[in-house]
Model the fold of this input.
Amino acid sequence: MSVNTSTVPGNAHTSLDDRDVVFIDGVRTPFGKAGEKGIYHGTRADDLAVKAVRGLLRRNPEIPAEKIDEIAMAATTQTGDQGLTIGRTVGLLSGIPKSVPGFAIDRMCAGAMTAVTSLAGGIAFGSYDVAIAGGVEHMGNHPMGEGADPNPRFLSEKIVDPQALNMGNTAENLHDRFPEITKERADSYAVASQNKLARAYENNQIQPDLVAVAAQRPGEGWAVNTVDEPPRPGTSLESLAELRTPFRAHGRVTAGNAAGLNDGATAAMLASGAAVRELGLTPKMRMVSFAFAGVEPDVMGYGPVPATEKALSKAGLSITDIGLFEINEAFAVQVLSFLDFYNIAQDDERVNRYGGAIAVGHPLASSGVRLMTQLARQFEEDHTVRYGITTMCIGLGMGGTVIWENPNHAEFGAKA
Amino acid sequence: MTQDFSAVAELMHDETITHSFTKDVALPSGKTLVLLTLDNGLDHKKPTTLGPNGLLELHAALEKQAARAKAGEIHGLAITGKPYFLIAGADLSAVTRLSAPEQATAMATLGHRAYALLADLGVPTFAFTNGLALGGGLEIALACTYRTVSTAAGALGLPEAFLGLIPGWAGVYRLPRLIGPENALQVMVENPLNNNRTLSGPAAYKLGVADALFEPADFIESSVAFADGVLSGDIEVKRENSVDPSDPEVARRWLQAADKAEQFVDAKLSGAAPAPYKVLEVFRQGLKLTQKESAELEIQALTELMATNQFKNTVYAFLELVQKRGKRPAGAPNAKLARPVTKVGVVGAGLMASQLALLFVRKLNVPVIITDLDQSRIDKGLAYIHGEIDKLHGKGRMSQDAVNRAKALVSGSVTKEVFADADFVIEAVFEELNVKKQVFAEVEAVVSPECILATNTSSLSVTEMGRDLLHPERLVGFHFFNPVAVMPLLEIAATQWTNETTVATAFALGKNLRKTTVRTKDATAFVVNRVLLRLMSEVQAAFDEGTDAQTADTALTPMGLPMTPFTLLAMVGLPVAQHVNESLNASFGDRFAVSENLGKLVDAKITSLWAKDGNGQPMLDPAAQALLSFGGKPSTKDEILTRVQNALAEEIGLLLSEGVVAEAADVDLCMITGAGWPMHLGGITPYLDQVGASERVNGKKFNS
Done:
């Protein structure tokens, strides 16, 4: 564990209310490419989640497993190796005492984020003191939309344009709505994402929060995976320009300016202010507010805008108070529409410092906790930042945003 | 490799090859670990084993890594297996094909060549013992510099002595140095001869077989981190049980442990099988040898042992009987014909009936009702069953909930009305035909026409019991062995009337009771008791003719049977043995002579020929001696042994020609699982073939 105790602010323990919600730690498996060539072909989704949860427990030995009040684990497709109430199965398979309950959560891409906010609600209410939130998606084992049976009323009553069930189409729709977001801007954003991730790897900013995963592909020996498989460092604008636009002829959305199809799992430890004091924990972030909001399903990528507006309003903050952004990169266009709304430059250094899902991958329900883990590390690195947000768009037209406060900031705990 | 192994590899051209896959692992410290996975590409039902081709592949993979180690490209190598297995051992089917001594030598040498690379690769080596590691599988781990083991690793051990070999891929050399001579002999000698007992992962770790113990959920990841720690010097491995044989005190312990183990082997085998003695011989010599010198001895010992009948018989017993025929019984009808058994009735509340009731309730979890003539017998039977359940609870083998469930399922009644909705009713009452016929008549008056009726008779005619039944097609012999909970065999005897649904249900029930089932015809005493009693009546006859008791009772020592004839007689009970013998005599005549001497002992209620003298040594019971009369024709031990061999060959030959069971293999399976006869005899018929009895008596061998 890389926490330097000398950087822990002296007022973190005293300034927290008992029912404050704090982020103690987060980890994830390296992400893999979905499909037969991927590192996790032949590996079970629940086993990935178990590796993440056990890695989290190992890193936080001061938290006795029996103290955990709840395990919320998200998965978008809740069948097969992601079925059977995966929060419960992962707890049992991780060797956590049987007295610790668990449940499964689904809000598509925002599964893990919703796991965090649900448990946060429970902590704030006094029902939990220590809880694990996470997510897993093995998109190789569970292709997107697998087994879905959309209600015919979506179509007959024009509730949801059937096209909107395909996320790539919604990204093209977003380009239509914001013509100023060109393919060139999207590609340029994507190249930057790859470069930023490569730099973060060079600076060892990614590796410390990865849990090694041993996996055996059919017909091969065991491999131990310690780095992400999806990144394509050195991606150039020229190479991106040549990619197909699979969702629309002469469209703008390509495999290069969107997140891929991936396998992976994340897990985070949340705690109450009371538990921080009781167990002597070191919070990495304090939750300030969260909000989810809906938009038209056919432009689902716009969801982070109303969600962030709502979360800022609940926190009594303005966008100018936010010093760091971790926004999920389902599609470049969706990030750009958010940045344009807030007049933030697409190369603003507050945004996705370690790159984003376009480079690292997006195993749907797991990604929310990845954003938080990365924001937590950036808080440790940059004590000048007081507030940061994690935000993401969600299928069927939603967005989710969580605002966090940096315990390392000088004014931490001084109520706004 | 200098030596050419192509002949032995070609011999196993159809081997299920365990491949050696390698991947580089970048360790957090910056070092490179090669992870070698042993995998045959099949699921967990097909364990990985090592045949010559797999060993050649492993050797080639290790040579490649040795070159990389020399070039400084790698810092360590770890070997692990597919899920649930490191390696289940050498490929026994390959070993059985090694007909010539030079082939056996080649196979033994090949293992040493591959394992020697693990011991001396130029960089430290690690075994990540993720699962089962037996024989050559554990020896792979022992060859490595360090070992980790999973808490879920099912079975670790060196069962070679059980199979008729020695742990001759350096296990016999390395294990005592690693965990101490006493512990090593427990693993290499005592455990194999105690029903082939194995070690769990935690037990192996405790003995010092492994340096670290990790949970299965991220066993490989934890093991890799351990390897990194060791390679970086952050983790120091301590081995409290390891010894240096050059220390005179260790040498003393070494030889003392070998002597103690030899006493144990003598008590078990009396010299009847060579392998455990060979283990001790190589172990003793290994004390002063280098590993390479010991390897030569080991290869020589393996070559010798692979040529022994005891080894061939054991492999036959293990592969053909226990693993195959025991799981797919000859003559069992299609399992789909079987009817469900949701309630069981047991007529009788004596010891046998109570044991049956206990077994039924534990394995089937259905209501079981015992009946008897009066409430006090029932209460006694129920008290026994409850007591046994409590004992299992005390040993941690049944939870409180399971105890509650089992006790609630067992009840007793003085009337048979309670059997009305039973699917299966078995009688275990007094061995008297008329009593049993009356019982079945009463039961038949209550139960449905389909309810299966079973008898646990050991020597009465099932056919006669069925003769007056309204529905004789549902009657079947269902013969257990004492103690019911321990002995695996269940003889299922069909009469001329028994229909296939009944037989199928009996087999399905036997399977659910976790028994080894063998189909027999309804012939007196079926298989096991007929063979055992023939043996005992020959020994009894020799005794009655004037052979002294000691000579008569130890004449069969070279066979290595689990107990002497007179000890067996006392265990079965003299009256029971006499009763069965009378039935056999009635059916088969003087081959089963009824001993007057035995009759006198039974009448005098003497329970054993043997008593203890003042020094605790066995002596003929003086009370028995006074009753007995002897002829004037004493036999030597050799004469008795030959006489018994011939008698067994004759009896089994007759039994087979009568069609009591399908094949000689069924007799062998019966004797192993019903009488505990040793695998090194192959049950019995391979032994009879090998000593010439089959040809002497029947003019041909049982097995081609």
